[in-house]
Recover the amino acids of this structure.
């Protein structure tokens, strides 16, 4: 019985891990999905521009599927940022002629950590425009926000924007925000709203959305930040802030009940790590 049970678990796990999907976003831009992860790709008359491989199995499946459905070579592969749960397996998605693109800080991190993926051939500091006939992809760095060298990618003329992790639509930001910079999330999201309008935003997780969805997300991270900062400035402990900062106007967001307290703990940790709130002489409890 035990043996049958474990066989069942193994079978269901392997079924789950092999569940891949491609769905149209707009015009010649598509979204690739496995589990909770998404990446995007664009198909032109003669080539494909792909983004995060996610993992080796997913990358192998996507590579074969692009060849089968569209019969074009993968000319470019661009990483959204350094984090390995999005960038692993680049060698299975890139062909020998593919040019791999990363922001210089993402590239540096992947090299220094000997990450199991294809290293970049092309790096950039601020902006990079890749032309493919009448199509193009515009990559922009917005400063620190999540991980290292995280960029936005705009696929033209479809005007689809791809952003991973520092904007999440239709769901709470992940747990206690490991790897995030809350100031940077707010600043970068404001920058995206100040750029030329996009038609659709595709994230690395959760939903696709519009500018209004991005504005709603920004209002959540600002309320979260303001609430934690004000609580800390008035000398409250993280537990007290978790009790008092209900953020109830956002309670319809999926995972709100599960992750509200963890989101608060994450911002509290960042204000200690990055803004040194434990050294603030103006906070009453710090003088005790
Ligand atoms: Zn992610």
């Amino acid at each position: 019985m035990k043996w049958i049970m474990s066989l069942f678990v193994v079978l269901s796990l392997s079924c789950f891990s092999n569940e891949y999907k491609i769905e149209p976003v707009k015009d010649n831009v598509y979204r690739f999905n496995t589990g909770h992860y998404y990446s995007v790709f664009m198909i032109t008359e003669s080539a494909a521009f792909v983004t995060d491989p996610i993992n080796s199995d997913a990358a192998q499946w996507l590579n074969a599927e692009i060849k089968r459905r569209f019969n074009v070579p993968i000319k470019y592969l661009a990483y959204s940022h350094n984090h390995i749960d999005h960038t692993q397996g680049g060698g299975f998605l890139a062909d020998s002629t593919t040019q791999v693109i990363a922001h210089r800080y993402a590239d540096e991190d992947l090299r220094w950590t000997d990450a199991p993926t294809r290293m970049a051939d092309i790096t950039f500091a601020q902006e990079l425009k890749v032309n493919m006939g009448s199509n193009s992809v515009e990559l922009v760095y917005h400063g620190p926000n999540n991980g290292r060298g995280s960029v936005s990618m705009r696929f033209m003329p479809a005007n689809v924007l791809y952003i991973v992790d520092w904007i999440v639509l239709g769901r709470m930001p992940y747990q206690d925000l490991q790897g995030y910079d809350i100031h940077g999330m707010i600043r970068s999201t404001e920058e995206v709203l100040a750029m030329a309008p996009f038609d659709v935003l595709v994230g690395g997780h959760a939903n696709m959305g519009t500018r209004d969805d991005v504005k709603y997300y920004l209002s959540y991270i600002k309320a979260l930040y303001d609430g934690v900062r004000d609580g800390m400035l008035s000398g409250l402990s993280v537990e007290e802030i978790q009790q008092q900062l209900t953020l109830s106007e956002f309670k319809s967001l999926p995972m709100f009940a599960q992750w509200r307290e963890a989101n608060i703990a994450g911002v509290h940790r960042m204000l200690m790590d990055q803004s040194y709130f434990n050294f603030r002489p103006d906070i009453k409890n710090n003088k005790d």
Notes: Residues 7-16 have pLDDT under 50 and may be disordered. The first helix runs from residue 2 to 17. Residues 77 and 100 are 5 Å apart (CA to CA).
